[in-house]
Amino acid sequence: MAQVTLKEIADILGISVTTVSKALKDYKDVSEETKKKVRELAKELDYQPNAMALSLRNQESRTIGLIIPEIAHHFFANIINGIILEAEKHGYLVIILQSNESFDLETKQIDLLLNKRVDGILMSLSNETDSLDAIRKIISNGTPLVLFDKISKMVNCSKVIIDDQKAAYEATEHLIKSGCKKIAHFRGPLNPQGSIDRFLGYKRALEDHKITYDPSLVYICNRISSQEGFDYAQQVLKDHPDVDGIFCITDLVAAGAMSYFNKNGIFVPDQISIIGFSNWPISSLLTPSLSTVDQPGTRMGKEALGILVEEINAKKKKEPIEYHLIQLPTKLIARNSSKKS
Amino acid sequence: MAQVTLKEIADILGISVTTVSKALKDYKDVSEETKKKVRELAKELDYQPNAMALSLRNQESRTIGLIIPEIAHHFFANIINGIILEAEKHGYLVIILQSNESFDLETKQIDLLLNKRVDGILMSLSNETDSLDAIRKIISNGTPLVLFDKISKMVNCSKVIIDDQKAAYEATEHLIKSGCKKIAHFRGPLNPQGSIDRFLGYKRALEDHKITYDPSLVYICNRISSQEGFDYAQQVLKDHPDVDGIFCITDLVAAGAMSYFNKNGIFVPDQISIIGFSNWPISSLLTPSLSTVDQPGTRMGKEALGILVEEINAKKKKEPIEYHLIQLPTKLIARNSSKKS
Q: What GO molecular functions are on record for this protein (chains A, B) (predicted)?
């Protein structure tokens, strides 16, 4: 059975398509009797109004676009979860695109979504993004935009982030307070703001506690992989045999480092403490269980979607839009890969 | 700057909207000179054709709908990844909805997608799904449908799955060949086909190797959580002190069980072997590293999308649609939580 059209309803009842259409929209110039007949038949045949035609009339697609660097990533998956849960509440559908950390793809995807006339766009920037022209096009196009997690401070729009610098400060301070004196940092790539902020938090915590910052204790994980954690764990012991703590950019890198130490008979945390970042579901099940920083992914998605819907509504009512900068709190989770502080 | 319309282009050039529209579509009754002017101005003003109007004309939304039980789940995140990568290649956008394992929500989401007139639907069923009426509505509506991973054999459409029974058989057989004589199974809920098939594979492997099947060695994980793995690890030792192997429905449950044994000085695999299912990214980093079965999530997503696009194209050309049943191969990954077989 194909989808029922207005014309079929009209033909069955022997009235015009216009009358059927007006009846379904409850126009005054159609009799109550006709309206009743049309509604009953529409229900019986399971008539569904053509969403595209409706959207065209309302200039509204009830669809929002989401561009995210990587879906198969625990934190982003939680954010998507939050976005979709909240979109459902507000009656929006979500089109998801994955930039794969590629700036070119991201630019193309922005065009696709504008072309599709989505009502608003949510974005977390790729690590490669170095020009903001495409993103500014969203704004000049009048489409509401909210950036989250991986943002650029140079774009004038609402943003939802965590305070990476503060979170990294707390993680590093936790190691210091538990007795670590020589703390390495397995950091992320050089470009992304989050990676920079975590590094700055690490550095500031050292300085505030009168520990001299030593750049040779900082190792760059360009792919943010467990293999890099594994390899740098071996490297840092060669470079600095007296290292006694490591703050890792994510739990995955930390798990890789811990796996190297476990395999080589180096005791965590007795000889070396490790703290990660992100609180992956399996982190509590590592041996020893991994200390980390919990990031509220689901909440971040909900907040970002909530603000976007506010802005879409304001635009509809032609009200001025006020940009928000939301910083969500993180939580230090001290487990057994670090000593009690 | 709002989006440029055909009317604005027409006004600037002092020609009719119809002429502009025809020029952009390269109609023969518009002069080359006018076409050139229109194209140049459209490019300069960054004119984007209204996708909804285009769709309405073509009866095509270039959008497909995806309903999945849970996004923040490693295996599903990989599937979504595969679907989106492949959709990108074919020029389709993907609307993602999450059923949250709720049958009611799933039914509502099917209506939403049909109402949105997506070109096709991809679905993995919720654990709760016990009536197939809503799913059959997709088919009777003439919308191409492909089920993947969590399917129902009762629906007549294309399906992409893994051979859960065979994969579970191999996992159990691996434990038997490595010397285990009393093997427990921490299984999934009673309803889903995948959970049933893994149980059947376990049972068949025992029988084929002349080990008597003992129902008291099977424990049901309704939430498929690490906590259940942890709790049942304790329970199984009480119920069967001589148990020497466990096959778990997923790595998460296995990781929970291993965490209990690690904490209580029970050596894995010397005293008890463990094998999981799914090959989570952190599973290789557990101590000991977890033996498991690798499921090709990304490939499953790509295959499902590919078949759906084939069916959408066949429908457009009014060609008959042939349903496929694709069973993707899994791979046993023997690590250190089980003995060498």
A: DNA-binding transcription factor activity; transcription cis-regulatory region binding
Listing DSSP states for A229-272 in one string gives: HHHHHHHHHHH-TT--EEEESSHHHHHHHHHHHHHTT--TTTT-
Whether B251 and B277 have beta carbons less than 8 Å apart is answered as: yes
Domains of chain A are 6-49 (no CATH), 61-161+298-328 (3.40.50.2300), 164-295 (3.40.50.2300)
What CA–CA distance (Å, rounded) separates A247 from A232?
12
B287 touches chain A (CB under 8 A): yes
Distance of alpha carbon A100 from alpha carbon B71, whole angstroms: 17
Average pLDDT over chain A, rounded to whole?
A: 91
Tens digits of per-residue pLDDT, A48-82? Answer: 766 545 554 556 789 999 999 988 788 899 999 99
Q: What chain A residue is nearest to B142 in terms of C-alpha separation?
A: A2
Q: What are phi and psi of B60, to 5 degrees?
A: -145, 135
Coil, strand or helix: which one is A55?
Answer: helix
Instruction: Determine contact: A55 vs chain B, CB below 8 A.
Output: yes
Predicted complex ipTM = 0.74
- In Å, how far are A69, A136, B57, B118, B328 from B298, measured between CA atoms? 16, 33, 34, 22, 11
Pairwise CB contact (< 8 Å): A78 & B72: yes
Out of B1, B117, B256, closest to residue A141 by CB: B1
Residues of chain B neighbouring A2 (CB-CB closer than 8 A):
141-142
Which chain A residues are closer than 8 Å to B77 by Cβ? Answer: 71-73, 77
Give residue-wise pLDDT tens across range A173-195.
999 999 999 999 999 999 888 89
Which of A1, A56, A98 faces B140 most closely, judged by CB atoms? A1
* The pLDDT value given to residue B155: 92
Burial grade of B259 (CB within 10 A; 0-12, 13-18, 19 or more): buried
DSSP element (H, E) containing A274: strand A273-275
- Which amino acid, residue B210? K
CA distances from A111 to A99, A157, A311 (A): 13, 18, 20
The predicted structure's pLDDT at residue A330 = 96
Q: Contact, B244 vs B181, CB < 8 A?
A: yes
CA distance B169 to B26: 61
Task: Tell me the two tokens of residue B137.
Answer: 């509505």
In chain A, residues with a C-beta closer than 8 Å to the C-beta of B78 are 72
Tell me: the pLDDT tens digits for A202-239?
Answer: 999 999 999 999 999 999 999 999 999 999 999 999 99
* CA torsion angle B262 B265 B270 B274 (round to 10): -30
